[in-house]
Specification:
The structure is a homodimer. Chain A is mainly β. In chain A, 0% of the residues lie in helices and 55% in strands. Chain A contains no helices and ten strands. Chain A has strands spanning 3-6, 13-14, 22-30, 39-51, 61-67, 69-74, 77-82, 85-89, 96-99, 105-112. In chain A, a hairpin with an 8-residue loop joins strand 3 (22-30) and strand 4. Chain A is globular and about 45 Å long. The two termini of chain A are 23 Å apart. At the A-B interface, strand 1, strand 5, strand 8 and strand 10 of A face strand 1, strand 5, strand 8 and strand 10 of B. Strand 1 of chain A pairs antiparallel with strand 8 of chain B.
Chain lengths: 117, 117
């Protein structure tokens, strides 16, 4: 059966760890708990000055920026992102998202469902 | 290498067919042309009064509504959707998206990449 949610109903999880993850909230919009067979859709909210870890993993990211401004780290350096930017990070590539703006940076990040924990 | 796109750079494809698909533009934000291995991310824009086909297929949809108001057809009838609504349509379930508002209805729709044509 179709599952319809409002974003406001999805509780955030604070991913900040005091070291390399700063000011990061995550909401799993579609994931294993919904019986999703292939991919998971997550919403990330980075506070001003916040960042995800600079890391590498064997799966890809499909990112769509909904709000705010920031950068994504790529092998060619940091590239500006903002509302309406789409980023495909291929498997095995080093990357990091940073909020460089005055307000929240919100983006959707899709991954293969088996990696959503 | 990471692929960074602005939505304005992605050309729309008019999916309208004069019968059961009305006022539907599709943009493939992440898909086979990007080397995406698992999933494709598409942006759909439905004009006022527009609708996708009422149909069933063997793969799931992961939908996030970005703008506008409409409905999604489910086995329990039509459910209202709007900005910030997330819809998971499981494989094999009959469904349709309709724009019931005065402006465009925009939503992201993620599918397994093998079904993106």
């Amino acid at each position: 059966m179709a599952i319809v949610k409002r974003l406001a109903e999805v509780p955030p999880r604070d991913m900040s760890n005091g070291t390399d993850v700063v000011g990061v909230l995550k909401r799993v919009l579609i994931g294993p708990a919904d019986g999703a067979p292939t991919f998971a859709v997550r919403l990330f909210t980075l506070a001003p000055g916040g960042n995800t870890p600079a890391h590498t993993h064997p799966f890809e990211h499909g990112v769509v920026v909904l709000r705010g401004t920031g950068t994504v780290l790529t092998p060619n350096g940091r590239v500006p992102i903002g509302e309406g930017t789409t980023v495909f990070v291929p498997p095995g590539e080093h990357h990091q998202f940073q909020n460089t703006g005055p307000g929240p940076l919100e983006f959707l990040c899709v991954i293969p469902v088996g990696y959503e924990t």
